[in-house]
Amino acid sequence: MGRHGGPAVDDLLRVLEETAAEAQDEPMTMGQVLDRLGDASFALICILVCLPFLQPFNLGPLAALGGANFVGLGWQLARGRRTPWVPERLRAVALSGRAWRRLLGLCRRVVTFCRRFTRQRHTDWTTGPKGHLTCGSLLVIGGVLLALPFPGLPFSNTLPALMLICVCIADLEEDGLFLLPALFFFVVSLVYFAFILYGLFVAGDAALDWVKDAI
């Protein structure tokens, strides 16, 4: 995908700043913001879509929609598609100015923190057909984890979202080693979900009643 780095991230932050200001009067949709990014990279679009899921609460149907979107984006990237396509249902999601301001602040903190540790290393892990296949596959896996139906379960969106963010930053910075944190959050997600499933199996009917109440 080429070297995106600082200027591309700055463009994303600028677009979010403009969106937060304009959405004070009327909510703006995800599609409107994606259109402002134009021919942005997969990584920038994935970061934008991923931001709402970095909070500790499960977003229910929105998480399923986001997860399906990441599966689609990952598949496109793995197949070598240059311009990402986002489904209309996700593009239609509208957020208020307050929500966009929160996403702007979160994006700035996440990118600033991650870029303290990144530099160009093992670029073949994130660039070219092999790199696209690697990053795309990880986006697909993260999307599946994000879409798992665990209503009311804290951090069930957060852990896969952290995995996805790490993949995006690794791609932007062409830092193959930054895929290692993505793999770490993948393992943590699997362990967390396995623990929950084991608890549901052991608790039996009581756990099912809890799930029904949460829904």
Task: Describe this protein's structure.
The chain has 215 residues and is mostly helical. The chain has 10 helices and 2 strands; from the N terminus they run H-E-H-H-H-H-E-H-H-H-H-H. It has a two-stranded antiparallel ribbon. Helix 1 runs antiparallel to helix 6 (97-114). The model has no long low-confidence stretch (mean pLDDT 85).
Structure keywords:
215 residues, mainly alpha, two-stranded antiparallel sheet, 2 strands
Short structural summary:
The chain has helices at 5-22, 30-37, 42-50, 61-78, 88-91, 97-114, 128-147, 158-173, 179-203, 205-214, and strands at 28-29, 94-95.
State the low-pLDDT regions, or none: none
**How many DSSP E strands?**
2
Helix-strand pattern, N to C? HEHHHHEHHHHH
Helix content: 55-70%
- Most strands sheet: 2 strands, antiparallel
Assembly state of the chains shown: single chain
Radius of gyration: 17 Å
Structural class: mainly alpha
CA-CA gap between termini: 41 Å
Shape: globular
Number of domains: 1
Number of helices: 10
Strand content: under 5%
Average pLDDT taken over every residue: 85
What's the arrangement of strands in the largest beta sheet? 1-2
